[in-house]
Structures are given as structure tokens and as C-alpha cells.
From TrEMBL:
Key words, A-Z: Cell membrane, Membrane, Transmembrane, Transmembrane helix
Membrane-spanning segments: 6-39, 60-84, 96-129, 141-167, 187-206, 237-252, 258-275, 287-307, 327-345, 357-382, 414-434
SUPFAM superfamilies the record matches: MFS general substrate transporter
Segments forming domain Na+/H+ antiporter NhaC-like C-terminal: 145-429
Protein name: Transporter
Putative Na+/H+ antiporter N-terminal domain segment(s): 5-91
Cellular component per GO, a single term: plasma membrane
Keyword Cell membrane found: yes
Recorded superkingdom: Bacteria
Main localization, broad class: membrane
Membrane association type: Multi-pass membrane protein
Localization annotation: Cell membrane
Length: 435
């Protein structure tokens, strides 16, 4: 059954193509078409499903492009060297503590100030020159960012974590297990601990210095940043104010595109962006983020196609038929969750798909309610790290590859897949057997 399942084959095809350094955008498109064809749907029907499904990430794609424009506007002022100047005083010069600081900041984006990936294209590109000077391996920073984007929502019921846990509570209830948010957070911390261990291992593994070619612009920024007489001018204050407004409006309205648009308008009206340089700002924003935005679009389309193939239900039914016991059932459920999320690219969208089968399967195998919560939650979260189509990997790449020196697949996806998914599976299997 696995050898003919369209979900398994299409996700494996996508991963193989990406590892062979095939263009990520085309790899996802081809894998989506392959999924449809393997399910017996024609090319035309599959293409229509793909295009229709792309609507699911339209807001995210627009957000990426507008955030790119904000980042470009900031880069045209002295805010970048000022940021480097002050941040370099507070962040340790050692790789481990530098990356841990980035992970700590990233955690705020999920819970305390829920801006998700919005901070990355603004904070990370200005720090690339400093990372190059310190010879920091960007794979360590990629793992730190992905940890900060995923671990908080997996384990803490605040911000995006509350949303994740609420969806989990709802879907468990729909399938006969009524729990409270407190019940979920009382076991999902295990997933957070697993990822924390993975982060420490990643930072230890990537501790050796790595050299990157420094551009003339980065060298200039570092020289400017080393000056002690740096000060905020009118343009810098306006751009900073626009960025604050962008984040404030997003939190108030829950709309990142609206916040970014209003932030740009404020910058233009008050002179933070010169009127004659508007086109240049937008062009730089597009150059920085358009590719990532279009990957998000086709990723949503790919997820739509594999949902329509019927292969996910077939895959889960197969798991229930061969589980054989608690240990086998836990391993199979988590591996299938990994495959599904790798294809769909979102943990939040995976929960409703797998809960309908996983909950009855857990009950039939004798798992406790806490163990069922843990298995469904971790099965949904697995694959968010490491998936070429996930914003938990695309976000870090968008910042770390601002100068074109960071590979999405080999410098973000592969490291985060190894150091986060493996600990999550191990902890999920072990703890589900004993709680």
C-alpha cells in the first residue's frame, strides 16, 4: 500500500528533488502534479486543485513581500548599522550564546508578541555582517530561529500556542475525548523539551567557525557600526516608527498585510522613504522575498492536492491495521504525521486530518488520554521543522539568505529536520508509553 500511496510517493519525490538541488519551487509543483496523477486525477483537474488551493496562503505570501519592502526601507537608513552597533554589545561573541539569544528573541514572536515570522526579514539581514565577522555557522542560527518559531506554540498555551492547543482540544472533542487547555499544556511541554535538547545538540554540532564571503555593503555597514557617534536622524526615527506601527496594527487587527501597508504609508508620508525611491524599495523587497512568497503559494496548493487524493485516510487506515501494539502504533502514527506535515507544511492544518483516525486508534490500543494528546499533538507538529514548504523553515531562510549565501534545503531544512524531528519522535514514543 505504501508503494502506491500518492501522499507518500509525492512527499518522497519532493524531498528527493530538493536534496538533488532541484529548484524548490518546481519540485513542489512537480510533486503536486504527481500526487494528482497517482490518485487517478487528470492533469487539468490536478492543476485546478493546485491553483485553487494556493488561495490558502495568499495572505502569507503578500505578507512576505510587504515585509521585504519594510526591510528594504530600513536598510536604506542608518538603522542597520545602529542596530548592529548596539546589538553587538549585548549579544555574546560565542556561537552558542549568540544563537541561543536569537532563539530567545524568536520565542517572543509566538507567544509574548505574536508576530510569527514578521521579525525575521527585519532583524536578521542587518546581523549577517556581524555573523560573518564572528564566523558563525548560519545553520546554527537557522536551528535557533526554527526552534523559536515552533517550540513555543507546541508547548505553551499562549499566543499561537493557544491557537494550536485550541484546535487540538476541538478535534479531540470531535472524536470523543473532551479535555481542557490545561490538560493539553500539561503534556505538550514534553515536545518543547525534546526540541530544546535538539537545539542544544545543533548549536554544539555547528559550533565550529564557518567563513562566508562578505559583500562590500556588509563591510561598509560594519565600519559604520563601529563608529561611536552614530545617532538617530529624522529618517531613522520615521522608519522605526513605521516598523512599530506595522507590528502594532498586526497585533490589533490580526492582519500582517494591513500592518505592513500602513507602516509603509507612514514611512512615505513622513519622509522615511523618499518619494522618488519608492520603486527601489519595492523592487528590493520583491527581490528579497518574492521567491519565498511564491513557494508558500504552491505549498498551499500542494497541500490541497494531497488532501483531495484520499491518500491520507488510506495511509492512516494502513497504520491502524499494522500497528500491532502500543510501541508499533506510536512509531507508525508519528512517522505518518511527519509525512503528512512535510507535504502540507503546517502543523495547524494537520491536526483535523489525523485526529479523526488517531484518536480511535489510540483508544483501541489502550493509550491514556494524556498519551493520546501527546501523540496527536506531536504527530501534527512533526515535519514543520525540515519541510521545504513550511514557514518555520522558509522564514529563517528569508533572513539568512538575504545575501544569497544560505541554502534553503541544506542549511535550513536538513539541519532542522535532523535536530528537531528525531528528538520529537523519540520523546513522543517513550513518554506515550508511560503517561
Amino acid at each position: 500500500m505504501l508503494l502506491t500511496n500518492p501522499v507518500v510517493l509525492s512527499v518522497l519525490l519532493m524531498c528527493v528533488l530538493c536534496l538533488l538541488r532541484f529548484n524548490v519551487f518546481l519540485a513542489i509543483l512537480i510533486s503536486a502534479l504527481a500526487a494528482g496523477m497517482l490518485a487517478g486525477k487528470g492533469l487539468v483537474e490536478t492543476t485546478n486543485l493546485l491553483i485553487t488551493g494556493m488561495q490558502g496562503n495568499l495572505e502569507t505570501a503578500l505578507s512576505y513581500i510587504l515585509l521585504g519592502a519594510l526591510a528594504a526601507a530600513i536598510s536604506m537608513t542608518n538603522l542597520t548599522p545602529i542596530l548592529i552597533h548596539y546589538v553587538s554589545k549585548f549579544i555574546s561573541k560565542k556561537v552558542f550564546w549568540f544563537s541561543l539569544s536569537i532563539a530567545f528573541i524568536a520565542c517572543f514572536s509566538q507567544n509574548l508578541i505574536p508576530v510569527h515570522i514578521a521579525f525575521i526579514p527585519i532583524l536578521i539581514p542587518p546581523l549577517l555582517a556581524l555573523m560573518n565577522k564572528l564566523r558563525i555557522d548560519r545553520r546554527a542560527v537557522a536551528c535557533a530561529l526554527t526552534f523559536g518559531l515552533q517550540a513555543p506554540y507546541v508547548s505553551i498555551s499562549v499566543g499561537f500556542g493557544l491557537l494550536f492547543h485550541t484546535i487540538l482540544k476541538k478535534e479531540l472533542g470531535n472524536n470523543g475525548i473532551n479535555v481542557e487547555i490545561g490538560d493539553i499544556s500539561s503534556v505538550m511541554w514534553i515536545g518543547g523539551v525534546a526540541m530544546l535538547i535538539g537545539l542544544v545538540l545543533a548549536l554544539f554540532y555547528y559550533r565550529k567557525p564557518r567563513d562566508y564571503t562578505q559583500s562590500a555593503l556588509e563591510s561598509k555597514e560594519l565600519k559604520v557600526a563601529q563608529k561611536e557617534d552614530l545617532c538617530m536622524g529624522q529618517k531613522e526615527w520615521v522608519v522605526l516608527g513605521g516598523a512599530v506601527i506595522a507590528f502594532g496594527v498586526q497585533i490589533w487587527s490580526s492582519s500582517l498585510p494591513l500592518g505592513a501597508i500602513l507602516g509603509l504609508i507612514v514611512m512615505i508620508i513622513f519622509g522615511g522613504i523618499e518619494y522618488k525611491k519608492m520603486d527601489k524599495v519595492m523592487e528590493q523587497g520583491l527581490a528579497m522575498m518574492a521567491f519565498i512568497a511564491f513557494i508558500m503559494l504552491v505549498a498551499a496548493g500542494f497541500g490541497s492536492v494531497i488532501r483531495e487524493t484520499g491518500g491520507i485516510s488510506e495511509l492512516i487506515n494502513f497504520a491502524s491495521s499494522i500497528s500491532g501494539g502500543k510501541l508499533g502504533g506510536a512509531i507508525i502514527m508519528l512517522v505518518i504525521g511527519l509525512l503528512v506535515t512535510m507535504g502540507i507544511g503546517t502543523s495547524f492544518g494537520t491536526i483535523p486530518i489525523i485526529a479523526a483516525i488517531y484518536v480511535p486508534l489510540c483508544m483501541s490500543l489502550g493509550f491514556s488520554v494524556p498519551a493520546t494528546i501527546l501523540l496527536v499533538g506531536i504527530a501534527a507538529a512533526l515535519g514543520d521543522a525540515g519541510s521545504p514548504a513550511s514557514d518555520s523553515t522558509l522564514g529563517p531562510t528569508s533572513g539568512l539568505n538575504a545575501d544569497g549565501k544560505h541554502s534553503h534545503i541544506y542549511d535550513t531544512c536538513v539541519p532542522t529536520f535532523i535536530f528537531f524531528n528525531i528528538p520529537l519522535i523519540v520523546f513522543g514514543v517513550i513518554f506515550s508509553l508511560f503517561i
